[in-house]
Amino acid sequence: MDKATRNSSYPLQRMLSAAMVCTSFAMPSFAQSYPSRIVRIIVPSPAGSTVDLLARPLARDLSAIWGQPVLIENIPGGDYSIGASRVAAAAPDGHTLLMTNHQPVLGNRFLYKNLPYDPDKSLMPITMAARGGSFLLVHPSLPVKSIRELVALAKGMPGKIAYASTGRGSAGQLTMEILARREGLSFIHVPYKGPSQALTALASGEVSMTTLTPTATGAMVKSGKVRAIAITSANRAKLFPAVPTTVESGYPYITYTFWMGLFAPAGTSTPIVERIHRDTIAIATRPDFAEKYITSSGLDVVANSPAEFAEAIRADVAIVGAMVKAADLRPE
């Protein structure tokens, strides 16, 4: 390269260097200017649901940090898919987020042929806030105190013991049907519209069994109106240490867990995702917040990274896929 050519290239080099410096300052500044207006957190379940009860105090505390209103918008329906699709179609600028349980990104992929969003590509995981198992519950009139005793009783009563679920493909149905398939049992499946209806049916004796979270059933377990014979998580619930896990009980293939997590639309910039993640886990791991809104409900604080959350979803997909196959569920 001659001297003239070298000299003519210097302005271009200086421009590129200046652009790189500007970009390096612009990315943090972009994240620091977020949010610039109201943030909406879509909850795809009704007000008062387990997810809603965590999302609302989280929104309140995020609003205090960000200096912008953070509003909860409940959009139930379609097995959580209506709310999830709303977020998937939103602008990827961090001003529309999704706070949900596992159903939209986990269970729905096995239940529906044509979802209005892609569970893997339409939503960006930010953090799993909390996780816990579900209780395997029986009516006190059912003379069993363990899964082993339940299996023994059911073998002598094929097709006579009814269980409640919150619908097709729910944790309750998958848990009971994989137990039936693996142990050669036959149960009557009675679906209900939601957890409260299923729990009421169990407490009244309409059905003999169901599977629901400690959040929804803890008070009735403590009062003795229903009996918890196992929990489907890897560890015992801190508030119910006497209830063994399904693994401890000898049934490791029943490990369906309930979680709640925060998502953004796919394509949201890394600096914004990192800002939301940082502030969310700072709230979720704060002792007063965690005790009041997470651990007091029988759940564990997770607060993992976006990459860890994505990996946890992939692991759960494999587990639930096996349960769906055992239950012989076909997408509709």
Helix and strand arrangement:
Layout (H helix, E strand, L loop, with lengths): L2 H30 L6 E5 L6 H17 L3 E5 L6 H8 L7 E6 L6 H4 L11 E11 L1 E4 L8 H9 L5 E5 L5 H13 L3 E5 L3 H10 L4 E4 L1 H10 L3 E5 L25 E9 L4 H15 L2 H7 L6 E2 L4 H21 L6
Parallel strand pairs: 1-2, 1-3, 6-7, 6-8
Antiparallel strand pairs: 3-10, 4-10, 4-11, 5-8, 5-9
Question: What does this protein look like?
Answer:
This protein is an alpha/beta fold and 332 residues long. It has 2 domains: 37-131 and 258-326, Bordetella uptake gene, domain 1 (D-Maltodextrin-Binding Protein, domain 2, 3-Layer(aba) Sandwich), CATH 3.40.190.150; 135-231, D-Maltodextrin-Binding Protein, domain 2 (3-Layer(aba) Sandwich), CATH 3.40.190.10. It is 43% helix and 18% strand. A 6-stranded mixed sheet has the order 2-1-3-10-4-11, with helices on both faces. α2 links the parallel β1 and β2. α1 runs parallel beside α9 (270-284), α2 packs across α9 and α6 (171-183) crosses α11 (306-326). The termini are far apart. The relative contact order is 0.16. Residues 1-27 have low confidence and may be disordered.
